[in-house]
Amino acid sequence: MRVLLLGSGGREHAIFWKLTQSPNLSEIFVFPGNGGFPDAVIAKGITLNDFESIRAFVKGKQIDLIFVGPEQPLVDGITDSLEKDCLVFGPVKRAAMLEGSKEFSKTFMERHGIPTAEAKSFQTSVDAIAYLKTRNLPIVIKADGLAAGKGVTVAQTFPEAEAAIIDALDKKIFGASGTTVLIEDFLQGEEASVFAICDGERALPMIAAQDHKRVFDNDQGPNTGGMGAYAPVPFMQPDVMKRVQQEVLDRVIAGMKQEGSPYRGLLYAGLMIHNGIPRVVEFNCRFGDPETQALLRLMDEDLLLLAKQSAEGALPDRSLKFASGAVICIVLAADGYPGEYLKNIPLPELKTVDSSGDIIFFHAGTAKQAGATVSTGGRVLNLTAAGRDLADARKRAYAVLEKIQVPGLFYRKDIGLKGIP
Ligand code: AMP
Ligand code: GLY
Fold first, then answer.
1. For residues 400 and 381, is the Cβ–Cβ distance under 8 A?
2. Arch. (CATH architecture) of 190-419
3. pLDDT at 14 over 80
């Protein structure tokens, strides 16, 4: 198959690494890519938000399948626009609304009995603040639309919650994404991410992963896109996964089918688990970053074949296979991230895969400049390490990081600790 992969993060570099192992792949192009990709695979003449430019590329290069990494093109309807030209891995626009609008997502969950926190949506700060006064702390304020991971405030005090409401509804700091806010009850528990490959009729879950959203050790500081991840997650035992399948994944599949927009592509369930009971914190319509970098290293499947079967509505009726052991992914971020951060940090030449095969570096916010590699984004590099178990994977990962200190980059020292008894 001839494939076009869209996106530029560590997630896409890991997806590329996995797709290129497929016996079904004949040629792959990537757009826009990053400094980790060979120059020869970078597609020319595409603009990500101009689907006509993508259609022309698909026709010119006889692409069989587009693998969509990030959410924006999906929420903008890339699948609806191009599915007559080739297979597209990712949901149609209405199904992608599960990520594109938190209000849509919440009312969908209510319609289909999917367990989640109670929430109400508001367009005016007066109404929102009146409702706020009737709730308990902590409380969660969410901008409705896509806000690059910055639209959620977990407020410990009423003034903090009020400020978040006023920022979104009156000061419009999220623009159109924040003209509606949700006020959501706080959920206790431990977070886990479950990704399922879906074909409109069934959802095949991967093993669970855990992200680390806060920027500093011990979950301190502001939220980020994700500072590290590991898989598998010890508290996601078969009984919990069974509940996730029946109460979350299967209900999304049945609900979307019933509402006329069958869910195909990757469904990301961000969950809070309390006493073995899963509740949905958020849905995303694509692979998560950095969980994907860990999960794909353990997945014992042909990802390209699964993407094709997902888009065709023809996934096999069996569970997905994963290797034993554990993988950890540690994000190296630029000083200042998630605020204003350093750019153009010179990066050492790092082999993608080390000689043992246990360590793999994926690139995220990097670019090649005059032969050298420099940082361009906040999350710059992703170190992944495989081990017998999580403690072993952690040890291997941090041993490498201690050796390659890069000035201008920092990382959390506690990734994976929560998964070790
Ligand atoms: P989201 O962008 O919806 O994933 O929210 C970002 C982060 O905020 C989540 O990963 C959680 O850590 C936290 N969060 C969101 N909603 C809730 C909630 N209802 N209760 C507790 N924490 C939440
Ligand atoms: N890991 C969080 C996300 O991809 O949204």
1. no
2. 2-Layer Sandwich (3.30)
3. yes
